[in-house]
Amino acid sequence: MPKIALCIGVVILVGFVAYLALNSEKVEEKATALEDVQIAEDTAATTDRNLLVASENSEAQQVDSSTQTPKAAANKDNATKYQDQPPFPPPPPPVTSKQTQPTIEDQHFSQQGGSAQSNSDEPPLRLKGIGVNFEDFKFTKAKLQFDRLFMGFGFVIPGSSSSSGNDKSNPQPTYVVPLGTPVRSLVDGVVAAIPTLWSGDVSIQVTADGKMQKWIYETEHLVNPKVAVGDKVVAGQIIGEVGSFGNGDPPGYGAVEIGLLRGGQVPEHVCPFAYLDDSIREATFANMRNLFQSWEEYVGDQSLYTETEIPGCLSLQAIEG
């Protein structure tokens, strides 16, 4: 009996173990199945999310496309339009022109008093005229004191005709022209003074700003002045007439002098023709050479005028007085 009971116990134990093993496999299979279901659910959820995002992106792109389409189309049209046109030309180079002296307003009236520039070692204004017109020179066979209608800067006045009795270099170019010939301003400026000269006529003195400065532009031996102190003048403007101061001129003729005076402890003149404005320089020099040559041919004397570096300037050195 004990053996039988033992055998029965063993059988029951083996059966129980087999039951446990079978249930364990089912549990594992069930767990595996549950795990597979969970993975499938996760995958489906992920897919749904991806589809949702894709849908949202698609809608956003459609909205953006509907918003941007006109601009994009316009850009496309513009690109096509400009492809059919030639390229824009480069900007033109800066215009360069011959440098000329600034106007009196730009150069001086914008400065207080204008004295800074007027006191420099260079004249503040360039001559835009020589005081008379070239057609004002009227040839005559009458006897002239120096056999010339035009005496340049530095022309030597013999002692017999000078106030000192010694030879003297003329500091002011002198023209012999008919009485009453209009005398014109040399520069754009302001009348600073009109003193009466020893000969009873006047000198009209012009400066950059109407004050007595280091540089003074002179026209002397005028009668019937047409301007007053403080008047603004422009080059070529008639400021007076040629008078006669008893200098041996022939009947009906007088003389006018022009000067460029540099003040200082010892005042001195410089050749005004060395400071002509660019706008008149070449034409003025050509007219001077023509005048000299024509006069020499007229009187039959080829020795009256000497060719110089600057026509009208027999010297480039300053002359005292």
From TrEMBL:
Residues 56-70, 96-121 have a biased composition (Polar residues). It comes from the Bacteria. Gene3D superfamilies: Glucose Permease (Domain IIA) (2.70.70.10). InterPro entries: Dup_hybrid_motif, M23ase_b-sheet_dom. Residues 86-95 have a biased composition (Pro residues). Residues 177-248 form the M23ase beta-sheet core domain. Pfam families: Peptidase_M23 (PF01551). Residues 56-124 are annotated as: Disordered. This is M23ase beta-sheet core domain-containing protein. It comes from Candidatus Kaiserbacteria bacterium RIFCSPHIGHO2_01_FULL_53_29.
